[in-house]
Structure formats: C-alpha cells, structure tokens
Design a protein that fits this description.
Layout lengths: L18 H10 L22 H11 L19 E4 L21 H7 L4 E3 L6 E3 L2 E6 L4 E6 L18 H11 L21 E6 L4 E6 L20 H5 L1 H4 L11 E7 L3 E6 L12 E4 L5 H9 L5 E3 L3 H10 L4 E6 L2 E7 L10 H9 L3 H8 L5 E2 L14 H4 L10 H13 L9 E7 L3 H18 L4 E7 L2 H10 L4 E7 L4 H4 L17 H12 L7 H14 L2 E13 L3 E2 L20 H4 L5 E2 L1
Length: 598
Amino acid sequence: MRDEHSYWSRRYPGTRLGRRAFLGSSVGLGVGAAALGVVGCGDDDDDVEEPAAAATAAATEAPTEAPTEAPAADAPQQGGSYIWEGDGIRFVPAVVDPHVAGSGGVRLWLFAGNIAVRRNFDGSELVPELFNAWETVDGLEHIVTIRPGVKTHDGPLTGGRLFNTEDVAVNLERIAGLLAPDGDASAYWMANLLQGLVSAEAVDDSKVTVTFSSPLAFPWGLTLPYASLMPVENFESGGLQNAAPETISGTGPWALSEYKTDESFTADRHPDYWDGAPYMDNVIWKPTGDRVSQSASFIAGNGTFFNNPSKVERETIIDAREGSQLFHWAGSTCAYTIFNTRSGATFEDPRLRRAMHLATNYVANQEAFWGKGFFHLGGVLNNAHAEGIPQEELLTMPGWRVDKTEDLQTANELIAAAGFPQGEGLSFEFMGNTIWEAYGYNFSIRQMDDWRSAFPEIDVEGRLSADATAHIEALTNGGFDISHLPIGSSSPASSDLGQYTTGAGNNFSGYSNPELDALVASANAKFIPAEASEDVLAAQRILLEDMPQLIDHRLHQAGIYAPDVRGFPIIPGATEPLAGNFENWDTIARHAADLWLA
C-alpha cells in the first residue's frame, strides 16, 4: 500500500486559483523554490463551497427523507484515461530495451516497470521499491532482500507470476553488461552504475547476493529511472525488440495492451500492483507532431497532461484552457552541451571548449525559454547534489555570470590563441535530435547565435539526427563535433561523475583523464557516499578546467494538468526553497497511478 502521508498522497484534492494568482505564485516562487503550484483560471475571488458543507446544506433542505450522499467531486474514483500527448518526441520506437543505448524504450517502462530503489526528496536516503532491504559489511558483498508479493503483469508472457530473486540477479548482471550476447558490453550504457560487478546470485526466494571486485556505494546508482528491473522472460521472448504486448511483462502500475510503432502505446491498470492499483483505467502516450501541435491539442481538450512547458506554452495554455493546473519543482534532469574531445577532433583543444562556454549566455537563454523561477543554473555536477556548485556561486563565475563583458574578451583571446581569431577558419556542426526538440533544439539555436555574435567569422551550423538511435550511435562513435543531450542525474555524486571516466558507456565526449579516473574510483570505493565529498569536489575542479561538457540548462520539472484531474503530488516545504530535489523526471509518468478524474 502507498504511504498516505507521503508527498504523493492521493488524498490531496488540489487547489484552484485565478489566473492572476497563477502567474503571480508560479513566477514568484523564485529560483531555487521547490513548490507545488496547483492553480487554475477564473475569477480570483470565487468562493468554493466545501463538499462536506454542500452535503450538510442539502440535508437541511430535505424535509422528509435524508438523501443518499453522493461522492464528493474530489473523491478518488476509478475510470477514464491518462492521456499524454507527446513530449517533443515524434515517434514510438520499435525497440524498448532500456538497458541498451539507443533503444528508446524508456517511456514505456516508466509506466510498466519499477526500479530497485529510489531517492527521497532531498536525495539523502534511499526508499525501497523492488528492493525491500539491503546491507553490506565492506562494500564488496551486499545482501539484497526483495519486496515480497510483487506480481508481474497477467499476460501470456509471465501469467502474473511473482517477481523473484532470479529476475533481480539477471537484471543486475545484464545492466552491468555481464550478459552481453557477444561479450561486448559497450552497448550497456548504465554499466558504470554497477562498476566492478562480479556476480549477482539468487540465494533463496527472498535474498540476492551481489558481489563487486572493489567497494561500491550500492544500490545508490540504481535510482536512475532508466534502470528498470524486468521479468527475465522479456529477455528471452524478443518482446523488447518489437514491443508486442503479448511478449512484454513488467511489474509497474500499467500493463502494455497496445503498441503501435511510430504512433502510440496504451497500457491498462494493473489491478494487482503492489503499491495499489491505479485509479484511471489506462494511460495513452501518443506523440502529436511538434510542440505547437501538442499545445493546441491539449487546449482543445484532447490531452490530460502537458509536460515541461516553456514560458510561452505556460501562458498560452493557461489563457486558453480554463482551470488548467500547474506544478513545478527544481528537478534532477540536466541538459548538457557535449564536446567531442577525442584525439584529432576539433574540440580536443580545451581552449576552444572554454571559449564556447564563456560565449554562452546561460541566464538570458534560460529566462527567455523557461522564464524566471523555472530553471537552475548548473555547472559540472547537477547542483541537486550537496557537492554540486550552487547557483549562487555559479552566478559569480566566468561563463555563468550575467555580465558577459569580461567573458567575451577572454573567449576571443582563447579562440585566437587556438588559431582561429574571431572564429575565422573554425567550422563545425552542432548535432541535435528531434527527440528533444522541445528544448534541446531551442537551446542549440540560442547557443549557436551566442557563438556567432561573439566570434563573427565562425562557421557553425545545426544538424538534426535522423532519430534517437542514429543520435546515440553518433555520440557513441564520435561522429559529431558538439551535441546536446539531457541526462537524469544518478546518485551518489560519484556515479554521476562516471560519465566522464575513460571508456564508460555513457562517456559520449570521449574524455579521458587518469587523474579524474582515480578520483572517481576513490569516491566509489567509499561506499558511504558522504565520505566521498572531497574526491567529488576535486573531480569537479578538474572538469571545470578541461570542460568536456557543460550543463546547458537544468530545467524545473513541470506539468500542466487538465482541469478535471485530481490527486496531485504534495511537494514538501510548500513554497520554501529546498537544497535539492532528486525525484527524477520519470515521476511525472509514474505518479499517474495516483491521479483520477473528477
């Protein structure tokens, strides 16, 4: 059962405010606020009669017979559909294997799957999911106890059997790349989350022994939302390759019932879900053209949820669809500008990387797109980590500061020293991807404009990848100059830094620095995360100097719900700023199980 006192509590009915209150409270939250803004349109001073009071009045007016009390409008009721029309993504991929780079299967498994553990709101503790308990003595050998009674989806593949310790063991070894069919683990892009895994073995019906060759802060890395643990039949049936409902089974609140490649997928409520069956009957996820088309469709009443709206989208939707309701908080997803630092690549020269950084107007770009109060500046490490550089400090540092006068002078000195005065002779492409068109494409354009303004002789053009698979392949193989990629932070901080270590599956920049590798290994070896802070801070100093990639923007997680949706998340601290938030972007999909329609 769910914790009814948690911030995902289904009992919260939401709050309706007028448009002026909506705009005032949302923007007025300020940078750093992690707050719930559940608001709507209409007269600001309307009095809303409480359901209990309405029922009392009705009873008083009935002189002869007490009426049967109808359910309150905000009471949970089963039925209806959770409809998510696109997220800047124009396709539904045929391959839905979240463990393998480029498969594009994450969306489905956010609804149909579960991860091992998740982080609490400020990232300080782990919360059980499919793991019920875990213990270690020396950081090398760990004993995991799985959650009992978790039923898989009742379909042809697993028949609703219980999720078991063999499933856990196989998933861990597979994520780590130990089960790669051809022995090449490079495609298993999350392997660094389980770096040094030797084996995972089912001991009995409740326990799994997990052994590493060197100490690791296990299972902190498994909080990454992509790291779904699936019934083993998924790996044997071929279902992950063709997304057929009869060959896919998960443990999540929604079971796949229809999958149309390049069109949509539908998943129905899992009545035996261990955390309580969803209220709505199904979820429907369907890309609807570009963001303009998605916004228009939501306004027309076709969608239930609109994800991560920009400033213009928020204002447009709130004006046009009365009663629309917004919430947002400082999330853990960052979007990175990634330089190809491989030998012989244009941006192997760190002077050029630093020049591009200094010429980027981070604050102006984010305010123009997200609006004030809907973003955080980010440095090397997501500053939701306690060890990350806080926004207040970044605002005083070269590149991130608002006054660009000195930054632009230094940038031109650096680019000239690298052999390209005012950018003359420097020609490269910025590789983007339609999958992140909602903000990746927009920020890429803004950044290229910044560079053209700072270096008038530069030759930079944008290039869109054909699809997500082609994009990841180009990143993996070094077939790019500069690219853009959103990344959900993993925990602890040393795992997040794993993307910079030599040979890591998600080290798309190709960066290699033995000193950094040693620091990250040292941090990982301190299997109590708080003891690794010194190593993490030292690693950031190296990366600030070398700059293989930069956090282009750290968006607030945000969503607009249709007027008749109820059961919104309660964010701790109300309007008080929080030090950080590690609830991943997947929670927007996952907490759909708690929502209902009025």
